Here is the input.
Amino acid sequence: MMPVSVVVPDEFKPLWETGDASPIVKYPAEVLRIPAKPVERVNKELRQLAEEMIRAMRQANGIGLAGPQVGRSVRVIITAAEGRPRAMFNPEILEASGEVVGQEGCLSLPGLYGDVPRAQRVKVRFLDDQNRVRVEEHEGLSARVIQHEVDHLDGILFIDKVIVETLHWEWPSGAGERV
Ligand code: ZN
Here is the structure.
């Protein structure tokens, strides 16, 4: 993959500050490029981490978030594409089919958007917050968010897969998918 170069325009720089008000780690933090470690068992600490991630995601008006985006190299993702946010631990895409191009953004690259080809449908296996193994099928936006977040766990960002000519800066309005 050929990494695109990201130069943040001045007007977007305030969005890129990380601190108490915005705990989400921004590109090019190294943690975003390291493959995250699998969860052995979902315990109280990991449930707390998921709660913190849900808070951070809501604060940033996101619909998905992955562990490395809060500085934790752990295989956990949050998805809110179907309404109530929930955590998936050790998510694994077992099957993927169809292809659809759609716009994506990323809370770790705020203000940057572009079109990314993704599978239309995925079958995903994960542990829920009670340690139960679940297998689910998702399609459309939900499938897109899961693919974007699982990529984060492997150190892959949407700018690695984006159709480069479609990359553009836009003030986040809630219109694009921010994950
Ligand atoms: Zn992202």
